[in-house]
């Protein structure tokens, strides 16, 4: 029997690969690529689907974003919210992961307890936090017992955002802790044993072995936490409605208001396109840092 032509085998393999990939590519196109493309198109239009339709306006929506004081306030709120959420959402889970990676009493119970918030409905948690921090809620009740005047947490432009940040950090701790625990398992124990023989203390081992060994995990956790924070919607929607004085209005909630309260879909699409661009930049940075990993 004559040997098969290598070119024919390669073509058949390629055809088989495309055949198996076709369903996934179809779903990707319908549910991801087409919506992104339509969002980008919509950002260059103006009008409402409930009125006389949409019409092309070019970059006018993006120019409106640049000139809008409300947008810049919302963008500042989002940056503040993201930075203040991401940092403790990395530091606290890392400390818990290092602690729970060793043999401690009730270790499995503690792991489960810390992870439960990450799988709890954010709407339900938001309602719970709103009850805790209301003017006559349990938090102010505890403050009153120690002689501190009650604080209007959710009615204050100063204190409302820290409450949202506290909720988001509490929500994210469990997931990041599990990620860090998985990363710690990849660090060879022999490195710690060699460091102990050289006289390194616990802090030196953490700084020179644990942190470098967790570099890919830290990058992944930082980027995913930032993306999770940037797309936050439930917190202002359930707890503050973006107030008081627009102080807790975040970018996704702002997009929702412009699209479904003002029916200005083009302007909302422009803001959403900007959010998509920020997310893609974060993913690109993650890929670059991972590529530079020695």
Task: Describe the structure in your own words.
The mean pLDDT is 88. This protein folds into 2 domains: 6-56, no CATH class; 66-291, MetI-like fold (Orthogonal Bundle). The longest helix has 37 residues, at 6-42. By secondary structure, it is mostly helical. The protein is flat, with a radius of gyration of 25 Å. Helix 2 (60-67) packs across helix 13 and helix 7 packs antiparallel against helix 11 (234-240). The chain contains 13 helices and 2 strands; from the N terminus they run H-E-E-H-H-H-H-H-H-H-H-H-H-H-H. 72% of the residues lie in helices and 3% in strands. The chain has a two-stranded antiparallel ribbon.
Features:
294 residues, mainly alpha, MetI-like fold, two-stranded antiparallel sheet, 13 helices, flat
